Amino acid sequence: MADCFHCGQPVPAGSPYQVVVAGVLRPLCCAGCQAVAETILEGGLEAFYRRRTAPAPPPPERVQAALLEEADALEDLAVPCADGSLAVELAVPGLHCAACAWLVERRLAAEQGVVEASANLGARRVRVRWDPGRTGLGAVLRALAQVGYAAVPARAAEEERALARESRDLLTRLGVAGIGMMQAGLAALGGYLAPPGGVGAPWEGLLRLAGLAVATPVVGFAAAPFFRNAWRGLRAGRAGMDLPVALAIALAYVASLHATLTGRGETYFDSLAMFTFFLLLGRFLELRLRHRNAREAEGLSSLLPATALRLGPDGCSERVPVARLSPGERVLVPGGAVIPCDGRILCGASEVVEAVLTGEERPAVRRPGDLVRAGTLNGPNPLEVEVAATGGRTRLAQVLDLAARAAAERPPLALLADRLAGRFVVAVLLAAAGVFAAWWLVEPERALWVALSVLVVSCPCALSLATPAALAVATGGLRRRGFLVRRGHVLEALAGVQRLLIDKTGTLTLGRMAIAEVRPAAGVSEERLLAVAAALERGVDHPIARAFEGVAAAAEPVDGRRVLPGRGIEAVLGGEWVACGAASWVEERFGHRFALPDGDGTWLVVASAASPLGAVRLRDRLRPGAAAAVAELSAQGIAVELVSGDRPEAVAALAARLGIRRAAGGLRPEDKLQRLEDCLARGERVLAVGDGINDLPLLARAPVSVAVGAAADLTRLTADAVLLAEDLRGLSRAVAQARATRRVIRQNLSWALLYNGLALPAAALGLVPPWAAALGMSASSLLVVANALRLANPVEREAVRWKVSTC
Amino acid sequence: MESLYLLIPLSLLLVGLALAFWVWAVRSGQYDDLDREGARILEDEEEADRG
Question: At what angle do helices A269-301 and A461-480 cross, to 10 degrees?
Answer without folding.
Answer: 20
